[in-house]
Amino acid sequence: MSRGKVAGKKTVSRSQKAGLQFPVGRIARFLKKGRYATRVGAGAPVYLAAVLEYLAAEVLELAGNASRDNKKTRIGPRHMQLAVRNDEELSKLLSSVTIANGGVLPNIHSVLLPKKSGKPALSAADGKE
């Protein structure tokens, strides 16, 4: 009887088994090294890798749309910022995150916009007299 691996059998990574692109083995290693708990379950790194992959795909999808809207072929920090800040849930999740070279959302306060033609709006000074 021979010991060890059977010849011809290809090793399959945990990422491949789960159908993920993110590295399950590396995330498992980080969870163990980080001392978040004394023991780490077998499903925890798979679940965490799936969540991280989903979030990355979501941000990249929105950033790709933002870069296409600006007629660019490469996603930059500005596109990432626009993607995150224009999405309500991602903006809430990443509210404390600063994206380097991301800039700010274009926003002009309504008071600063020119008055619309038609009826003249009453200003605060006109109303008091």
From TrEMBL:
The keyword Nucleotidyltransferase does not apply. It comes from Riccia fluitans. GO terms for cellular component: nucleosome; nucleus. The nucleosome is a histone octamer containing two molecules each of H2A, H2B, H3 and H4 assembled in one H3-H4 heterotetramer and two H2A-H2B heterodimers. The octamer wraps approximately 147 bp of DNA. One of its GO terms (molecular function) is DNA binding. The keyword Cytoplasm does not apply. Belongs to the histone H2A family. Coiled coil: none annotated. This is Histone H2A. InterPro entries: H2A/H2B/H3, Histone-fold, Histone_H2A, Histone_H2A_C, Histone_H2A_CS. Residues 9-85 form the Core Histone H2A/H2B/H3 domain. Residues 88-120 form the Histone H2A C-terminal domain. Keywords: Chromosome, DNA-binding, Nucleosome core, Nucleus. It is found in: Chromosome; Nucleus.
